[in-house]
Amino acid sequence: MRFPEIKWRAVGAQLLMLLALGTVGSAIRNKGCYTPDWPSLDSRPLPEWFDKAKFGVFVHWGVYSVPSWGSEWFWWHWKGQGAPQYQSFMQNNYPPDFSYADFAPQFTAHFFNPDEWADLFLAAGAKYVVLTAKHHEGFTNWPSPRSWNWNSKDVGPHRDLVGDLGTAIRKRNIRYGLYYSLLEWFHPLYLHDKKNGFKTQYFVTAKSIPELYDLVNRYKPDLIWSDGDWESSDTYWNSTGFLSWLYNVSPVKSEVVVNDRWGVNCSCHHGGYYNCEDKFKPSSLPGHKWEMCSSIDKLSWGYRRDIVMSDIADEAEIISELVQTVSMGGNYLLNIGPTKDGLIVPVFQERLLAVGKWLRINGEAIYASKPWRMQSEKNTSLCYTSKGSTVYAIFLHWPDNGVLSLKSPQATSTTQIMMLGIQKDLKWSTSPSEGLLIYLPQLSPSAFPVEFGWTIKMTGVK
């Protein structure tokens, strides 16, 4: 079955009629305290749960998980870009008339157990999970009425993946977010708008805005992770109109969080919190809440059969990114890509469980923390966080002499110092130059609760 041709012969005329009648557009008009403009929308306080959460799990899962080769941009590289290696892959592995739509029935999710996924994310210490409800290929992981025969209920899994995972996630008191791509590479109405220089909004009115409304009303997500905005302005996407409704009228108006990908030049400027770009790392403390999204597979967000171990971030790399991100006031969203069958492969499980083990010991310095006056020690791998008057120093390399030198904290008469996971005070002295010298426990490596990334807790310092 060929999705693009069959789908639009069947429903194209009906959608255009809806556009003409204005029935979709009327839904976005609303009344409330946040008007559909960036000065008003950007004045909304960020719900505090997001800043406290610090760590989340990102899940990229869709039809691209079937070829599982190259990246989740498989369809674009094959047909949109015409990349030779993707064309060769298809020629060598599939019949000549095989289309991207033919992958969809193989996206079975046969072994998908949402409770097992949720238990894994809970063990990983994740406070929120973001699932791809729809990537740039347009396939929706819920029964969207706007994606006839190109959604997880009509074809492939024949189930509501967004709903099933959301139910399991919320049973464990984890916040649930949904990724949604505004654009679709090969959608006829999107291509029509694109050809018109985005001076028409047929795709937005018939597809993206109604689906965003459907996702919010149906699943009540705690977070909307928007993407696919880069080809046109927020005016084309009607972003401010949607966000005004979301903040004023929607069933999640008080708790919902959104990112910054709502149109050209919006990233790092507008939205609830900033992603800026994939794997963003600021050079100094940002003045706005932000999030770093990273992937265990360094070369892809979706699952790849051709992955090798050198492409996998190791535990030390992941913990280091987490610590550096949180010390700079950010959240860390770590991605995995499940298989077409709904399995999370063991190496991804192992990495997530390693993060969870580390957080069970050091989470006090991460969850609900704030950046300290100094975020790191210059020319070291040591970072600081804080909670009220308590300061945490997280060091990623054990000093050879067993003495940790901290230049930034200053001792007082009430200073007390300990290491998380080691329930006793540590000896310390003031440095001849400035700061503190902390004498680390002299224990065998097996006696330490973690093998990488240790946290010093300090009270009574200035």
UniProtKB/TrEMBL annotation:
Keywords, sorted A to Z: Glycoprotein, Glycosidase, Hydrolase, Lipid metabolism, Lysosome, Signal
User: Could you tell me one molecular function GO term of this UniProt entry?
Assistant: alpha-L-fucosidase activity
Entry's Gene Ontology BP terms: fucose metabolic process; glycoside catabolic process; lipid metabolic process
Please indicate which residues carry the site annotation May be important for catalysis.
C293
Localization in the cell: Lysosome
Q: Which residues form the signal peptide?
A: 1-27
Q: Does the keyword Signal apply?
A: yes
SUPFAM superfamilies, per the entry:
(Trans)glycosidases
A GO CC term? Answer: lysosome
Which Enzyme Commission number(s) are listed?
A: 3.2.1.51
Instruction: Using the record's annotation, list all stretches that form the Alpha-L-fucosidase C-terminal domain.
Output: 379-459
A Pfam family hit = Fucosidase_C
Q: Which family does it belong to?
A: Belongs to the glycosyl hydrolase 29 family.
Question: What is the protein name given in its UniProt record?
Answer: Alpha-L-fucosidase
What species is this protein from? Pteropus vampyrus
